[in-house]
Every structure is written in structure tokens, then in C-alpha cells.
């Protein structure tokens, strides 16, 4: 595996790959890699001739400076995992390399970016669009792989691709979980032992919500009851739980409203001071 730290070297290396007619798969990450990332890389490895993984903690998508400063950074371990997975190129740039000057672009991301994470973290999705558009421009991949834990982010990236006219396939990949149901996340390492013990209750509440739907509750009622169940666990506090159309990300009041695209329940919960996200399909 080659570790690349400059845009010029990345572009040059991938131009050579394309000249040989080989396909390129990109897995954008912010590092602190875990088995969820490994699953993305393995999928990319199966479907492409060459795999590129970016490892970059993108400052423009953090609206909370403390969250940025405490985000785990484990470059050496990350690169060891990527080499073990058979990655061809690890792109590990500095902030100065990606942003030699401020990125002032504002993307018209529309309604998919205005609810849930978009409402709670102003500027977050514009920052995501900035970095992902840069990575797509540098690598020009045939396919790019994203985990469904960040369900809304995938919708936002699809919108950015439409706006920018990129020609590639966005490949959503299933959430990878611990044995007790907790969705794998780089933030999990920040959980206290007490927090780690109660965090799986989030998934249990989501799974219980499926039976609430079967019992005839409306999406709004399911969301209210699920929020109540999560908040009943000492140490957990729901920031939001919304049931939305899986394509438009807009909240639905009846199941029929999401009949065409399906409904997804998206939740964000504070476990102590660690912000965890998860979702479930209905």
C-alpha cells in the first residue's frame, strides 16, 4: 500500500491507473477506523481494480470546536488496517494540503440537508459537501462507498453529486454492529464504561419500535414512544428521533406517505457527552 499525502501525487497515481483502464473505488473516512470501515473497504475491494481510502478529519464539517478537538486520531493504526485489507492507496493529507485557503463554496443542498443533522448542526452538511466534492474531484472514482449509519449524509452526497455533475456510483453499505447491537462508530471509544453499558439500549428501543408500527401506531406516535423509552434510561438523552421518507429525508405523518421509498427512523442520542446516531428501516 502506498501512503500519499499530496493532491498532486494522488492525481498522478490515479491518472496512471485510469490509463490502464482500471476501475477505482473510493472510501472516504475520517480515520479512527473500525470493523465498519473494514466492511466498506472489503466491498470496494470486491467491486474495483484499485481501492483508495482517504483518512482526513475534515474541520469544515464540525460546528462544535470541542467535537473537532476530541475526535480520535489514530493514523498509524489506521494505515496498518488499510494495508492489511489490501488497499492500494491511502490518502492522508494535512489540513493545509486540502484547504490552502478557506473553502467558501456554499452548496444548494435543499430539503434533504435541512432536517435532523442539518437542523442540529448548522453548516455540517455544507462542510461534508466541500470535502467529498474535493475528494471526488481528486480521485474521479467509479464508485464511492458510505456506511448507512450516516443515512442522511448519503442523501446529501447524492444531492451534491447531482449539483456538481460527477459521474460515479454512490454505494450505501449496511451498518456494522457490536454483538450487543451498538452501531460501530469512531466516537464509541469516548464512551465511559457506564456509557458503553447503556448505549445498546438505543438499538433495543429502535427494534421495539417495529412492533409499535405493527400495533397500528402512526409514525409520530412511534417516534414519541421510542423517544420516551430511550430517555427513560438514566444517562441517555434523545436529541431527536424522526421517521422520514428514505429518499427525501422529510418527516412523514402517515406510513402511506413513505410507501414508495420506505420509511427510516433516524435517532441521535447523547450518551453522557458522546453524541451517537443510529437508524432503522420500517
Number of E strands: 9
Radius of gyration: 19 Å
Average pLDDT confidence is 97
As laid out across the biggest beta sheet, the strand order is 1-4-3-2-5-6
Total helices: the number is: 11
Q: Please indicate the percent range of residues in DSSP E strands (runs of 2 or more).
A: 15-25%
CATH class of the largest domain: Alpha Beta
Description:
The chain is an alpha/beta fold and 282 residues long. It has two domains: 2-173, Rossmann fold, CATH 3.40.50; 186-277, Pantoate-beta-alanine ligase, C-terminal domain (Pantoate--beta-alanine Ligase, Chain: A,domain 2, 2-Layer Sandwich), CATH 3.30.1300. The protein is built from eleven helices and nine strands. The chain has helices at residues 7-19, 35-47, 65-70, 75-84, 95-98, 117-120, 124-139, 151-164, 193-198, 201-214, 219-231; strands at 2-4, 24-29, 50-55, 89-91, 143-147, 169-173, 236-245, 263-271, 274-281. The strands form two sheets. It has a six-stranded parallel beta sheet with strand order 1-4-3-2-5-6, sandwiched between helices. Helix 8 links the parallel strand 5 (143-147) and strand 6 (169-173). Helix 7 packs across helix 8 (151-164) and helix 10 packs antiparallel against helix 11 (219-231). It starts with a strand and ends with a strand. 38% of the residues are buried. The model has no long low-confidence stretch (mean pLDDT 97).
Amino acid at each position: 500500500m502506498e501512503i500519499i499525502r499530496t493532491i498532486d501525487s494522488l492525481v498522478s497515481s490515479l491518472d496512471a491507473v485510469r490509463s490502464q483502464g482500471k476501475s477505482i473505488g473510493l472510501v472516504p473516512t475520517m480515520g479512527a477506523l473500525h470493523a465498519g470501515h473494514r466492511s466498506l473497504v472489503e466491498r470496494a475491494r470486491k467491486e474495483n481494480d484499485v481501492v483508495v481510502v482517504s483518512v482526513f478529519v475534515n474541520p469544515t464539517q464540525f460546528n462544535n470546536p470541542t467535537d473537532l478537538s476530541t475526535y480520535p486520531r489514530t493514523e498509524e493504526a489506521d494505515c496498518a488496517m488499510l494495508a492489511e485489507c489490501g488497499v492500494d492507496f491511502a490518502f492522508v493529507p494535512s489540513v493545509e494540503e486540502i484547504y490552502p485557503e478557506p473553502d467558501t463554496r456554499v452548496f444548494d443542498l435543499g430539503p434533504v440537508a435541512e432536517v435532523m443533522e442539518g437542523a442540529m448542526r448548522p453548516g455540517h452538511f455544507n462542510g461534508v459537501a466541500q470535502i467529498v466534492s474535493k475528494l471526488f474531484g481528486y480521485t474521479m472514482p467509479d464508485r464511492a462507498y458510505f456506511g448507512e449509519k450516516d443515512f442522511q449524509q448519503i442523501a446529501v452526497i447524492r444531492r451534491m453529486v447531482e449539483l456538481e455533475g460527477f459521474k460515479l456510483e454512490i454505494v450505501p453499505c449496511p451498518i456494522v454492529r457490536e454483538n450487543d447491537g451498538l452501531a460501530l462508530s469512531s466516537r464509541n471509544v469516548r464512551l465511559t464504561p457506564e456509557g458503553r453499558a447503556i448505549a445498546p439500549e438505543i438499538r433495543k428501543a429502535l427494534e421495539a419500535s417495529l412492533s409499535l408500527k405493527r400495533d397500528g401506531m402512526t409514525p409520530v406516535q412511534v417516534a414519541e414512544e421510542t423517544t420516551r423509552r430511550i430517555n427513560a434510561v438514566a444517562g441517555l438523552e434523545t436529541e431527536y428521533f424522526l421517521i422520514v421518507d428514505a429518499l427525501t429525508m422529510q418527516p412523514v405523518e402517515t406510513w402511506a406517505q413513505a410507501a414508495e421509498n420506505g420509511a427510516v427512523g433516524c435517532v441521535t442520542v447523547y450518551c453522557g457527552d458522546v453524541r451517537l446516531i443510529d437508524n432503522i428501516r420500517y
